[in-house]
Amino acid sequence: MKPAITLSRKLTLILVAFFFSMLLVVILLLFSLRDEYDSRVYSINSENTRNILSRADYVFSSALLLSDLICTDDFFQAALSEIKDGDGERLEDELWGDVLARLSTLHDGSLFVAGVSLLCDGRIAESGSGMTLSSASLEEALPSVRAADGSAVWFGSDDGSIYLIRIIRRLEFLSLDELAVLAVRIDVSSLAASLRETADNAGMLLVFSDEGRLLYSEYPEGKVLPAVSVTSTTLDSVPYFIYHGTLPLSGFSYIAAIPRDALYGGIAERVFAAFAFLLVMLICFLLLLHHIVKRMIFRINALREKMDAFEKGSSSAEIQSLPGSDEIAQLNDRFDNMARGYKEVVEDNYRREIMMKDSAIKMLTQQINPHFLYNVLDSIYWLSQKYNADDIASMSYSLASLFRAAVSSEDLVTIKKELELLGSFIDIQRCRFPDTIFYKADVEESVLNTMIPKFSIQPLVENAVKHSVEENGIKTEIVVRCHNVADGILCEVSNTGSSFPENMAEKLKEGIVSSSTERIGLQNIDERLHLLFGDGYCLEFRNEDGMAVVSFTVPGRQDGYSNSGR
């Protein structure tokens, strides 16, 4: 007959299975969170990269404006015409000196413009560090420049510079003959270093191109440039985020490769430390649970041995009693009472009592294991309840409240109810961003029963959380005010950590708000105010005392409004 698996071994197997199940769940959760985090970091940093590179776009467009100014400047037109024609009253060296002085004056203050050069009749006037482009490269570029018919043509150089080269043509009488060649040199290496310093990211690699021509590249030589934006690629065993885009002012295409570690910082190490801590806590918990189970099995075995000894003729008093007050100790006490009762009646009805005792022992043996197993499983359940996270329960309750409100059929709710829904939303956000959101409601009691559109305040607070907490990751104060004004009830949401762009209301009406989600949410509130209460009721935006403020007014009535949804 195959030996039965003992209860101790069964419980050990259960604990081991539980441990590996929890370990698998944690590992899968970590991988899932990592992928989600990668996606969110990539998306957020995409906008940040565009903002950083807007500085480079400004430098390129400024160089183009500088070239336009030089090409159309009356002084340069007159001086270069006089040099070109060779019939001026001044000496050519004197003219070139004046040209150089004027060139230096215009060049001074041009950000990252390392040099400006004018080439005319074999002579050159240079301001700044001048040209590093070789004569052969310049001669190779001139046909393309002349074919551009006066427009600027951009060329790259091996020394980390980008050149804007164009022909200066005579504007007098619109003859448009060639006067000189203008070359503006931009020190892109210094510009890129400045951008990296601004972004606090020493590992960022930049590539600029124009109309298919590669102008500047920090990408490793011999590596194939990614054709599209990707969330992850590897360069020399280092993972990178790759971003493609176009600079709006200059029209340059760019590729930005940003090391993932620069965005993660020490998050990976902290996640690993948290995982290690969780693993250690889980092991400690299982060891403690195993110790408790082992003690329980030991006491059950002691009780069983006591029963075996009593069955062989020893009295209960001769066997050591079990300490404690739990179910096993109660079983032990009941057994002792039973043994004493047995001893008292054994002389009177020995044979009958033996049969009854044998039957009772068998029944008790059949009950011990299921009863104990129930208690063990019950203990595990309550231990799970004990270690359950309260914030998860709070988020579930708050989310359920928001869902119930979302599917309800009412169009208008009281300010009091809207603030209750807002409280549920704030509870969820505080769980997501602990110690980050500081919320305060300043509401006059007399306006609590005023009817307003459902979900008209909550999306405004959600917009504040998105632009201050989610995007900037800073502590944010959010204040909601509702009070009486001359023409009704004013509802106002203000927050620190962000600001509205100028003419926000006009941009909202024209549909040019940057985020489509933000535009839809704000337009929804604005249109409902207009439909429910008429012209003059709309969202208003301003920045005041370091806070972004959005507000709207509703009529000061508490008896509801007529609308098609009621």
Keywords:
Heat Shock Protein 90, elongated, alpha+beta, five-stranded antiparallel sheet, 566 residues, 3 domains, 14 helices, single chain
Q: What's the total number of strands? A: 17
Rg is 40 Å
**What is the overall pLDDT average?**
77
Broad structural category: alpha+beta
Characterize the structure shown.
It is a single chain. A hairpin with an 8-residue loop joins strand 4 and strand 5 (178-187). Mean pLDDT is 77; it is low at 354-387 and 562-566. The chain folds into 3 domains: 1-265, no CATH class; 269-386, no CATH class; 392-554, 2-Layer Sandwich (Heat Shock Protein 90). Helix 1 (7-72) packs antiparallel against helix 7 and helix 11 (415-432) packs parallel to helix 12. The longest helix has 66 residues, at 7-72. The chain is α+β, with helices and mostly antiparallel strands. It is 53% helix and 20% strand. The strands form 4 sheets. It has a 5-stranded antiparallel β-sheet, with helices on both faces. Strands 7-6-10-9-8 form a 5-stranded antiparallel β-sheet. The protein has a 5-stranded mixed β-sheet with strand order 12-14-15-17-16, with helices on one face.
